[in-house]
Recover the amino acids of this structure.
């Protein structure tokens, strides 16, 4: 399970190798690039967020880095705003580019959702499939908790009850 805090950057270490769809991507396609599209779905509201985190693939896990921004997140630059604390479901999709886009990743060449199909091109990413799924818990940032309470009138001589007399 991933754990993070509202309004902060966070990292996650997730096994994507055991479900890898494009085997030997670096060897078979030396000019290609493997990226991961992460979909977050809030358990309570159903809100969906998509982001391409910065990632480092290792033998047993992939390290994902997510960056908090307060306004205008860029999903292609690993930027995200998790506006609700609580449980989120995550799904990680493998996206493969046969050639690294010369202008970088963005709306023109990178799928925005797992169902986004772009016109065939070596520089356009292709969603190969789901490689990991799980839960994430986002806790409130310290001092930002929302507490509900009832405020009562302070007792005076006329609005309280004597007992035991």
């Amino acid at each position: 399970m991933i754990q993070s805090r509202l309004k902060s950057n966070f990292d996650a270490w997730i096994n994507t190798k055991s479900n890898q769809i494009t085997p030997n991507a670096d060897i078979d396609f030396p000019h290609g690039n493997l990226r991961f599209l992460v979909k977050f779905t809030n358990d309570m509201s159903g809100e969906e967020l998509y982001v391409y985190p910065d990632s480092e693939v290792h033998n047993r896990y992939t390290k994902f880095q997510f960056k908090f921004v307060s306004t205008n997140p860029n999903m292609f630059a690993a930027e995200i705003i998790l506006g609700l604390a609580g449980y989120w479901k995550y799904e990680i999709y493998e996206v493969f580019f046969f050639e690294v886009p010369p202008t970088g990743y963005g709306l023109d060449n990178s799928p925005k959702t797992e169902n986004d199909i772009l016109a065939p091109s070596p520089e356009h990413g292709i969603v190969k499939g789901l490689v990991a799924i799980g839960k994430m818990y986002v806790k409130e940032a310290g001092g930002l908790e929302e507490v509900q309470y009832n405020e009562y009138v302070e007792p005076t001589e006329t609005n309280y009850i004597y007992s035991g007399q």
